[in-house]
Amino acid sequence: MSDAKDGDVHVDNDKVGKQSNGSSKQDSETSENIDGGSLVGQTAEDHLPVSERRRWGLFGFSFITISLTAGLVYGWPALRRNVLLETDMSERTLGGIFTAGAWSTQGGRFLFGVGRDRFGTRSTTGIALGSVMLGSIGVALCDGNSIVLGISIFAMGLGSGAQLCLQPVAGLFPTRSGTVLASLSGAFQISGLVFLVLTSISDDRRYTFGAFSLLIFVLGIAACFILPRGSSFLPEGKASSNDDDAESLESFAEDGSHPSVPAPFVTALDQMKSLEYVTLIAWFSVCVLPLQFYVGSIGFQLENRGDDDGFYTSLFSIIYAGAAILAPVGGNLSDRFGLGVTQGMATLLTAVSFLLLGFNSISLQVHVVGLVCYSVGRLFIFGMYFSNIGKRFEYANFGTLAGLGLLISAVVSLLQYPLIAVAADSHDQTVDWACAGALVLILPYCAWLSRQERQSRYPTTSFASSVKSLRNSLS
Fold first, then answer.
1. What is the pLDDT of residues 71-88, one digit of tens each?
2. Long-range contact list for 440-443, CB < 8 A, 24+ apart?
3. How confident is the model at residue 343, as a pLDDT?
4. Region 262-274: what's the mean pLDDT?
5. Rounded to an integer, what distance in angstroms lies between the CA atom of residue 57 and that of residue 51?
6. Whole-number average pLDDT of the chain
7. Torsion of CA 372, 376, 379, 384, to 10 degrees
8. Would the pLDDT of 40 be above 70?
9. Distances from the Cα of 396 to the Cα of 63, 153, 232, 346, angstroms
């Protein structure tokens, strides 16, 4: 193997490798990268090129599936108002139900990520879709029972596993991976509109959610025929001649169907020990807690500010989903200016949304600006989280790395429930501004990440060695 750079194509054959004058040098570079801690994984298999039609077909199916299943729980404000039509649940109870669904949306993806890497895309996606179908049936039949509703929302939250299973389709678009991943994060955000659509069609959830469960069943059947059995979206190639290898690899580079250029193989554990991964998870976890609190409390916060008829609550769901239009913009920004710049922009937008929400005296029309800032900021935060892992750590261990980060952030986000309870007790302004302050405090990380990107294409420093260096410098 060789230490591939951007735009290179790696071939393990002397006839087509273009390294006859420097093979010993490249061998030493490979050894140095493996021993020295290059933290990017790869698969060793050769792959056949993927047709243009097949690539876009897989992307289209992934986009539709994620749009209908992955982020349903974040349409909670619309479902909350529907539930209040038939029951007098307290805000604490409603907050607990949302927390259950939000936790499964975040934490459940870890299991799906590991499952995808181990058992393949088709089977794990099928399980995620099955969870959404069962959860939809539960919501349709719960009749205001808080326990059944909580279990059903928890099950629907597991549909987020479909996103983690399908995001590696971005490996089929190596020159536009950031844009593709951001687009799929936009699809996740679109799914937040589903509850509003269903409750707008009819207040009777038996019909709307029952029909929705049937739609998800049909989608699951389609997944059995469309998705690959294995964890890769690239078809495995058969042994070929040297000339065939050269021709195939050349076509990969020309049509863009080859995954990002391979780098020295390391384990998922090696990547988890990197300083960049540790700091990425810290940034993401700090961001997720305020993001979850916002969705869980925005309904009653807007009502406290005069939204008696629920117009602005419904508008939030529309803005939240509509922000998906900007998903390719976030991906393009990361491809052009880097992850650090885009992550910093996303963090700042979210901080502004909390700052505005904390003002009780401003008009609801001004609060719309905050709703927009939140929706775009959230879209970019999640999009850049997945883009960071895909671009900096590659896709060999994508499910495990992304899933672990989601699990850790899910544990941290359990604090959203006491925050919702405190906000419901008329302390919402304090909580809003505390969230804004926490987001501002993590902006220096984004500047550091931007510098890391300029220095190296891949993370090369382990967290342990960084701590050791810091300790030595202080002693």
1. 899 999 889 888 888 888
2. 440/348, 440/351, 442/282, 442/283, 442/286, 442/287, 442/347, 443/344, 443/347, 443/348
3. 96
4. 72
5. 10
6. 80
7. -160
8. no
9. 21, 32, 9, 27
Residue type, 164: L
Question: At 274, phi and psi to the nearest 5?
Answer: -70, 150
Task: Flag whether pLDDT at 453 surpasses 70.
Answer: yes
- pTM for this structure? 0.72
More confident residue, 43 or 110: 110
Helix (H, G, I), strand (E, B) or coil at 372: helix
CB 378 within 8 A of CB 106: no
User: Which is more confident, 468 or 441?
Assistant: 441
Beta carbons of 206 and 141 less than 8 angstroms apart? yes
- Extract the tokens encoding 446: 């984004």
Q: Do residues 326 and 376 lie in contact, with contact meaning Cβ atoms separated by under 8 Å?
A: yes
| Residue 251, φ and ψ in degrees, nearest 5 | -65, -30
Angstrom distances, CA of residue 80 to CA of 86, 104, 133, 206, 299: 11, 18, 20, 16, 8
Burial of 128 (0-12, 13-18, 19+ CB in 10 A): buried
Give the number of other Cβ atoms within 10 Å of residue 1's Cβ.
18
* Other Cβ atoms within 10 Å of 441 Cβ, number: 12
**C-beta of residue 157 within 8 angstroms of C-beta of residue 108:** yes
Phi, psi for 383 (deg, rounded to 5)? -60, -40
How high is the pLDDT of residue 415? 93
DSSP annotation of 259 reads P
- Evaluate if residue 193 carries a pLDDT over 60: yes
Distance CA 57, CA 335 (A): 23
Which residues fall within 8 angstroms of residue 126, CB to CB, at 6 or more apart? 220, 223, 224
Domains defined along the chain, listed by start: 52-235+265-459 (1.20.1250.20)
